[in-house]
Design goal:
Strand content: under 5%
Structural class: mainly alpha
Order of helices and strands: HHH
Distance between the termini: 95 Å
Helix content: 40-55%
Number of strands: 0
Amino acid sequence: MYCSNCGKPLPDGSRACPYCGAPSGGFAPFTAYQPNITEDNIPDEWKPISMWGYFGYEILFSIPLIGLILLIVFSVGGTKNRNLRNFARSYFCFLIVAIIVIAIILAVTSTSTFFTDILRA
């Protein structure tokens, strides 16, 4: 490698030219601080939910009226845990999509039987 200022050869790993003092650009790579993250020092809002926790919340959200109320409360921010809030939001979206699909299926099947009854008469 050669100095970009004076053109003389630079020793390997040098940070500056020994002849003119210009920086050579051969800096050591920057290593960022990597904090040790354990389950003890994770904030409460980022604590992961266990598999049994997901299973329990899914059963809780499946209860007809109470589950729907809790699902809406957890979806709009009734909990500080972001994992639970995101799970409730995804479950709520799934519930809305399922209701729409069931409504479409019922509408198609009921109208088809309605028209077949008219044609038979």
